[in-house]
UniProtKB/TrEMBL annotation:
The active site is at residues 69, 363, 384. The lineage of its organism: Bacteria, Bacillati, Bacillota, Bacilli, Lactobacillales. Belongs to the peptidase C1 family. This is Aminopeptidase. PROSITE patterns: THIOL_PROTEASE_CYS, THIOL_PROTEASE_HIS. Coiled coil: none annotated. SUPFAM superfamilies: Cysteine proteinases. It comes from the Bacteria.
Amino acid sequence: MSVIEPTVTKKFHDTFVENNKQNALQRGVVKNGITASAQNQSAEVNNVPVFSVDLTTGKVANQKQSGRCWMFAALNTFRHKMINSFNLKDFELSQNYTFFWDKYEKSNYFYENIIATADQELDSRKVAFLLATPQQDGGQWDMIVSLFQKYGVVPKTAMPESSNSSNSRDLNNYLNKKLRKDATILRELIASGKTTADVQMAKEAMLGEVYNFLAISLGTPPETFDFEYRDEEKNYHLDQNLTPQSFYEKYVGVNLDDYVSVINAPTTDKPYNQTYTVEMLGNVVGGKEVKYINVDMTTFKKLAVAQLEQGESVWFGCDVGQSSTRDSGIMSLDAYDMNDLFDIDFTMTKAERLDFGESLMTHAMVLTGVDLIDGASVKWKVENSWGEKVGDKGFFVMSDTWMDEYTYQIVVRKELLSPELQEVWKQEPTVLAPWDPMGALA
């Protein structure tokens, strides 16, 4: 390793102060900040929020200070269907209800993984991976499917938001404290030779404490409830004594087994037209396996367009923090010009960003429209879950080239896949390591 010699730093300093252009840039950036100084107005001009395919969705929701975007996005796709089917206005499904069961199931999933890795040293990569974040707010599409299939859904009126679902930092902090403490107990029980039955009995007691913790923090999930509402024509409706499962069947009615997760990961370790899963990625033990089919970007976008053209919105995952503006809601490669600002080439390929940790899926939203010119997509309408004060009343515009670079996953109906890809889907997936970027939680 070589040290930085003072003479080298002096050379850099002298060169900088003698450069009038860099001094002018310095004044602007020091005063206004990096992103504000690099922002391009042309990105807004080139991404006007007008779309040839534009679905009816209602108002956007707001996940507030929580990482529940994946769950909001999935519930929003159901909400779009219900708004159109039942002529609803300003309707939302309960995100708090789904949040409760996700935390409960993730705790059990963590316990089971701790038990399964009890023969490994604490500093093994898998055990360290588990203990680094026992659970968190984020998730994947197949994880939300597992929750819906086991617990159903309820309207927001049946289990409204709570302080701790809207701002989940304290809940996560103390739940993870408990899970790590419980991990020490489970590993000690196994190391001392306790039977499987004894270990499971101890785990069940721990789960009981988790349930109480969640009920105190989030409220008690309803077992039955009434659904009372007025539609857009002011007609009154009352449906009594529903369960979360019967509500799902009657009002949502989506067969989630008809949908598949499609990814675009152009890295050499993931050849296209093959299926993949990620080890230790999930929430519901015995639930739906996380599974993807990897395709090229042309196929990826054609599938999204096909579903939108048939009137159905599309759940998708992306790296929202890359080259996007929160206030104006523009996701475009020219949103900022950092290369010119610093005279540094920041360019990397999509594969390089995945391989070297520069990018992964960080956020899930919903595609609700697309602008097609001569049959080709040029920009996309995006429903976010950050409330109406960002973007265009909560909606963002994503350029087609931004989608190429920073969108990683969509969920579409299996029937939209070509016959060849439907056959590929039947294959057993290749298992990726727990820390693979495709295992990132939105």
